[in-house]
């Protein structure tokens, strides 16, 4: 899938480049005039991520454009017999551009093997909010959790060409389950890992930190330059979603494009 | 009988690594808990048993997948005088630490140790490193400073990694003794148990390619981030 968002003379963002094929489908974009953001929903018309799938996406936001990309439902990674599935995604934001990537959670099933590589390049003066949400498994299916074979999530972020963040999550389900038990988050712990790239003051930080408590851990820290790492762990999926919603509301007060409702479509 | 003085070169680097790994060596690591104080404040680590869990579930994997592979890769790059790779590894080391305190701790300890090497053991590699680091604005790194010291001393990579492993584990347990009700014998028995894992961890770390360096514990990162704003604290990180 390839998307390119460009700002028109009237200030509205439009998709000036768009190509995709299965398992991607892109919905008709929606211009949210209040937040000045173009909302695009990316749908996987299959049941989920299957053995042998290779998903590749490239999203570029040009100067002055604002784009929110979301998905309508969780991405289930199904049990695999021998092979694995891979997703490579690349996001590029030009100066004065804004990109928010807000997918629904990843749900790795028993015996799945999945690798996701995310590379982000933001020009100085560009902005980005990217969130990865992870569920421990199909909790509603006989409590199936922490049973993936291999789960590797890699994220690399460059601002102005400089590497500011590299994260590599490559843990067994058993290892993460043990950590969740150790820290008291429990058997249904869910994870949120967000990166915010934005310039200027950050009066929102204290309010974001206050989301910590009642079974939710929240930490905010500055990156090497140009932004923040925001991590949150919740004891269950309801609290995870509630935390993300509250976090976006706090951030929207400072970054108005985040006032765009991802569920508008 | 030959009366010429015989020099054991292994004894030379062993003595050097012992000096570098000693708490007497002024790298400033004694002022850091590397996130442990944050986890103590969150009530997660509160006694020897939970400390042991923390070491086994978090500290050892992070050493195996991040700090030790960084040191191994830097040791190789320094040996080849591949300075662009050394610079990339310094930036990678900094970018791997999302919590500001963890990043600054590695930077400060790395800077202190690098400058000590250049002062105590004048060696062209150390002075070249400092010159290029300053010119390129490379972040400092405790793991890469250890690799540099190993190269200057002539120590092989497993010995350098074992030194990093020991220093990291001992520093963490030393901090734990100030944060918890933990005696000398309890901490030494834990240290002994953890050191028994060193050969396996070092061997695994040597095999980690640059593209696969990295590991994170979300709870530790969150605790470290929250520690930045704690009302009271004993350690810098």
Topology pattern of chain A, helix = H, strand = E: EEEEEEEEEEEEEEEHEHEEH
Gyration radius of chain A (Cα, Å) is 18 Å
Please identify, by name, the CATH architecture of chain B. Answer: Orthogonal Bundle
CATH class of chain B: Mainly Alpha
Under CATH, the topology of chain B can be stated as: Urease accessory protein UreF
Q: How many domains comprise the coordinates of chain B?
A: 1
Summing up helix and strand content along with how strands pair, one would put the structural category of chain B as mainly alpha
Helix fraction of chain B, binned, reads 55-70%
Question: Quaternary arrangement of the chains shown?
Answer: heterodimer
Topology, number of strands of chain B: 0
Walk me through what this model shows.
The complex is a heterodimer of chains A (265) and B (237). By secondary structure, chain A is mainly beta. Helix content of chain A is 12%, strand content 45%. Chain A has helices at 173-183, 205-209, 237-252; strands at residues 2-7, 13-19, 25-26, 30-32, 37-43, 54-61, 66-70, 75-77, 85-93, 98-102, 106-108, 113-122, 127-134, 150-159, 162-170, 190-197, 216-222, 227-234. In chain A, the strands form three sheets. In chain A, strands 3, 4, 5, 7, 10, 13, 16, 17 and 18 form a nine-stranded mixed beta sheet that branches. Chain A has a seven-stranded mixed beta sheet with strand order 2-1-6-9-12-14-15, with no helix packed on it. A two-stranded parallel ribbon of chain A has the order 8-11. In chain A, a hairpin with a 4-residue loop joins strand 4 and strand 5. Chain A starts with a strand and ends in a 13-residue tail after the last helix. The model of chain A has no long low-confidence stretch (mean pLDDT 95). By secondary structure, chain B is mostly helical. Chain B has a single domain (32-228), classed as Urease accessory protein UreF (Orthogonal Bundle). Chain B is 70% helix and 0% strand. Chain B contains eleven helices and no strands. The longest helix of chain B has 32 residues, at 48-79. The mean pLDDT of chain B is 93. The A-B interface holds A 154, 156, 162-171, 175, 178-179, 182-185, 191, 193, 209, 212, 217-224, 229, 231-233 and B 39, 42-44, 50, 53-54, 57-58, 61, 65, 91-92, 94-96, 98-101, 103, 139, 212-219, 221-226, 228-229.
